[in-house]
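Posting for a labmate who doesn't have an account.
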Amino acid sequence: MTYSKGRLIKDGGEGYIHEVEGRPDLLMKIYKEADSAGEPILTSELVNKIKYMISNPPDSLISKGIIAWPIASVTEEGQGFVGFVMPRLDVDEHILRVYSYRHPVLDSIEYGRFPSIESRIKIAINLCSALHELHRHGYVFGDFNHHNVGVNYSTGQIYFMDCDSFHITDKEGAVFRTNVIMAGYLAPEIIYHCNLERASDRPHNLDKVSLPTFTKESDLFCLAVHIFKLLMNGVDPFRGVKSEAEGSTASPFVGNDAIERNAYVFREGNKPSAVFCLPAASLPPDVLSLFNRAFIDGRNEPTSRPSAEEWYHSLGRYLFNDLTQCTTEPKHQYYVRLAECPYCEADDRHQKAQGGFIKNMYRDHPADVRESNPFEIIKKSKQRTRKFHIIFSLIMWTSFILIYAVWNLSHGYTTIMFNPSNWHGFELIFVFAALIECIVEIFFCRKELAVLSENIIIREIDPKFCDFDLRGYKERLNDKILLMVLIAIVLIIVIGIFGSTFMSLILSVL
């Protein structure tokens, strides 16, 4: 059958996605000649992989319309194989948007589309079912991250996308490998394997690592990560910190570093870094047991991880037998044996932890910007920082000018003394204001750095995608912080030299 290329609907990293003329149920992927580093994309290995996938489809998943599996080759005269045709999926969002935390009051606009707990459990069950079918057909997902899983809000159905990146072993034992994986979804045994061989500076870049790498067990690790996020308000299972950590010492590791350092939130001696994470006791015992098997027992023995089928049955019991409705929030359902709704308690903790509008703009869910391009991330980071910085600066300088004017008038002075030898002492209030300005600038720059650092880690899906713009902006922020520190030191010295009268005047005013 011949397929004709239709309207372009997406320009992706590896290729272009087109509609298929006369077939609204299909899409066409046409590969680009080279990636951003100039390396050819359409290698003979990839061509053979796609052809094998076309000849050996997972029929049960294709018939249900939940997988973007290659079903036909696309050729062009003089070029040969250039891409493939795949089913068009009924996707609303990536699964990331389903479990990224939203507060019913602080995020009231976005909360309207935020699925209920019951819906999230159904999505988790559907995810288990789909992965079980994929494994039954002998395939391994590999890069099983939140960008490769889609969701339909109205049905709760999940969809597998970017199937040409799957880890495929053919019937003769040849492996068409997955070479990259998103940070935060790499199983501990693969991290260990990468570190042992020291084949790459970044463990999620696997093109130089010897086989075997991805297995059904590594898929089951990722499955447990997805389920944890669905049940735990989007919190990553490895966003744990030491139980005694407080304040600035409670900064969690992220991505593969967190997995490598065994920062599982429910491991003995750890606690969740995010206040909106539910406690372990909020889960049914059998569900908690499966999480512990996946992340504690399965750390050293991958075969100990629960299968997709085990998760399916356990979550089914939770959904149909052990779930009760919250009397306060319609979207909250929780374990029937609990006295209070743990999701309401988590929302309360989160709202109290914000403490004001400045803290609220840096909530612990940077997913808001994960899918933006580098320029949009920088733009959003600047906007959210500068808006509050400008407001603060206007209020502070206006207040200090008024205080200075009132002091001058009360003492009969009608001009500002620019000669330090004639200063009455209170002019140093502006030096003090400049010092506060420097400290505030450092505070906001550090907040921007936190957002940028997490985005850089999370966006490292492809080793060819280096995010030079984000890294360059991050370096400029570090330079700015250093400059502000130096200026602050100079201002402190000035206050120290001329500040005795200044401090006595402030104390007299107070």
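Reply:
Got it, the structure tokens are right above this. The longest strand covers residues 23-31.
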